[in-house]
């Protein structure tokens, strides 16, 4: 057996046969596994760790978990499970099963676990919007296809595959490769890819560049790494998640976007990538009030809407207020020639008035200091010259901050 164990999470009052099946497959694969009961009725079942044991880790005690209000009990058990799992020093991985309620219960605990630790959820909601469950964590989700009401010819195969996937991750863990370069975070969208590629050419020799897809959870993941001390600066070229927050798109950031920049005071260079577009699903899902706006079908599943001046002003104020809270080195570069591949002369989202509305609001809101500056440049965001300016500003800020300099400064 492996040294350490895999924790198998689920509600033993409704999912005991499935949990026992997964545990047995892991045992047969040479992996020690323990069932953790997260039932909110206090059901002990045949779990290795009872629900009452888990509930006892709630900051207010087990009595706060069990009660007649199901929603309150699920939220309290989720907090208890988070406290329980994050203190387990023998954990090799975590596998969970559940429907919508069970998945919502285990998700906060899995999100709180270290990146790189194997995490897998077999769920009835895995074929829908998984962002609330995955967040910025490396959680693998597998659609259960059938509901989990006992074992059947299909569920046995799917649960067996999940168990073997977990066994494979645990038995053959990835060995990190040492890299002397400091890691930094960058944000990218398809329409800002040329910009980021140019930035990488300038910075990759000196920095380990981690690029995050700006889909709401991408920005969240990047900032989580900064809070954990795993990245040491930002080239945040693509703030498009603010568009979806302002206009109700499908890839919004939360209210803590740029929060890690505030908390860590790490060097930050930002820009306007993708601020010209809001993301919706297939064209038929675009809200009725937006049907007469400028729309572009990015692919059959994604429809883009051009942001208007009012939305751009709102984003300028919002981003400006966040940057005003930053006490580290901040540079925000404004590209006069457009915010994306779609926002340039002849392209469908070309709208200089809307772009200028963003700039005016940001310039009005941002309290500029020697450490916090707004820089306007006569380039489009994807122009090589603009990318070179982003890279130059970040490299200079990083070097001048002696706490972050990877090599002795001259």
Mean pLDDT: 93
Topology, number of strands: 14
For the termini, the CA-CA separation is 54 Å
The ordered string of helix (H) and strand (E) elements is: EHEHHEHEHEHEHEHEHHEEEEHEHEH
Widest beta sheet: strand line-up: 7-6-8-9-13-14
The outline comes out as: elongated
Q: How does the major sheet shape up?
A: 6 strands, parallel
Total of DSSP H or I helical runs spanning 4+ residues: 13
User: Structural class of the secondary elements?
Assistant: alpha/beta
Strand content: 15-25%
Helix share bin: 25-40%
| Poorly predicted segments | 405-410
Rg, nearest Å: 24 Å
Question: Mind sketching the topology for me?
Answer:
Elements: E1 5-10, H1 12-28, E2 33-37, H2 51-55, H3 70-85, E3 91-98, H4 100-112, E4 119-123, H5 131-134, E5 140-143, H6 153-171, E6 183-188, H7 193-203, E7 208-213, H8 217-227, E8 234-238, H9 241-247, H10 259-264, E9 268-273, E10 277-280, E11 295-299, E12 302-306, H11 309-324, E13 330-335, H12 352-365, E14 372-377, H13 384-400
Parallel strand pairs: 1-2, 1-3, 3-4, 4-5, 6-7, 6-8, 8-9, 9-13, 13-14
Antiparallel strand pairs: 10-12, 11-12
Helix pairs in contact: 1-6, 3-4, 7-13, 9-11, 11-12
Q: Describe it for me?
A:
- By secondary structure, the chain is α/β, with parallel strands linked by helices.
- It is 38% helix and 19% strand.
- The strands form 3 sheets. Strands 7-6-8-9-13-14 form a 6-stranded parallel sheet, with helices on both faces. A 5-stranded parallel sheet has the order 2-1-3-4-5, sandwiched between helices.
- The chain is elongated and about 65 Å long.
